[in-house]
Amino acid sequence: MNYTTISVTKENLYATIQFQRTEVLNALNMQLMQELVDALETLDKDDEVRAIILTGNEKAFAAGADIKEMAEASAMDMLNRDQFARWDKIRKIKKPIIAAVSGFALGGGCELVMTCDIVVASETAKFGQPEINIGVMPGAGGTQRLTRAVGKVKAMEIVLTGKIFSAQEALQWGLINKVVPVEYYLKEAKNIAKEIASKPPIAVRLAKEAILKSFDTTIESGLEFERKNFYLLFASDDQKEGMKAFVEKRKAEWKGK
Ligand code: DAK
Description:
Elements: E1 6-11, E2 14-19, H1 30-44, E3 51-55, E4 60-62, H2 67-70, H3 75-81, H4 83-91, E5 97-101, E6 104-106, H5 108-115, E7 118-122, E8 126-128, H6 145-150, H7 152-161, E9 164-166, H8 167-172, E10 178-180, H9 185-197, H10 201-213, H11 219-233, H12 237-247
Parallel strand pairs: 2-3, 3-5, 4-6, 5-7, 6-8, 7-10
Antiparallel strand pairs: 1-2, 8-9
Helix pairs in contact: 1-4, 10-11
Bound molecules: 4-(N,N-dimethylamino)cinnamoyl-COA.
C-alpha cells in the first residue's frame, strides 16, 4: 500500500509511523486511520521490527478525528463506516507501540495515545477530550481507557468540561510515562523502542498480552492467563538461551523463537 497520510521509517529493529496531515494538525480522517491500521498490521508481521513508534510533529500528535469529515454524517453513515473496527485492529497489535507526543493530542488523538503501550511527551504536549464542545462525547475508548488510567472523578472532569491539560498533569495523573524537553521527545521514544527491541520478542509479546488482559478480566482469571503465558515461554529457545547466558555470565542472543 502506498501511503499519503503517514510515513513509515524502519531503523534497526524498530519502526516509526509519522502522521503527515500537518495542515490540519494531523486530524484523523478515514484514510489516515486505514493507512495506520495497514502499516501497523504489516509491521506486526515483520520480523525485522520489534517495537513501533507512533508520532506526529512538534505542533500536533493529532487534534482528533477529522471534524469536517464527520460534520454532516448521519448515525447510519457512522454505523456503516464501521470505523470502530479499525480501532479494534489497533488494539490487537501484538508488538509494543510507543507514542511520541508533542503539541495537540485531542479527542481521537488522545484516545489513540491511550491505545499505545508507552507514552513519551514533550513539555509542550496538550491532551484533552474536547468532544463535548462539538456536541458529542469520546467514541474510541475515551470514557473507558481514560477512567481506568486517571480514575472516575478526573475522567469526569476531563470529559465533561472538555478542558485541555498539560503534559505535566498527564504525567501526574498516570496517563503517560515521561515528559521531556521538546527537542528530545522522539529521541527518548526511540531509546525506549531500542531497549525493548533488545529484549526477547516472544517474552515481550506475551507480557504485553497479559498486561492488556488485566483490563477485561478478574484478578483470578488474569493471574491464570499470566501463568499460562509464563509456562508457554518455557517452550521458547529464548528462555533456554536467556537462563543459560545468565549462568554462563554472558550476553544472551535472542532468536525470537
Ligand atoms: N478536524 C478537522 N480539521 C481540524 C481539526 C480536526 N479535529 N483540528 C484542527 N483542524 C484544522 C483546522 O480546521 C485548521 O484548518 P484550516 O482552517 O486552516 O483549513 C487547521 O487544522 C489548523 O487549526 P486551527 O487554525 O484551529 O489551529 P489553532 O492553533 O488555532 O487551534 C486547536 C488548534 C487544536 C485548539 C483547534 O484546531 C481545535 O480545537 N481543533 C479541534 C479539536 C477537537 O475538537 N478535537 C476533537 C474532535 S472529535 C470515532 C473515533 C474517534 C472519534 C470519533 C469517532 N469512531 C471510531 C467512529 C473522535 C472524535 C474526535 O476526535
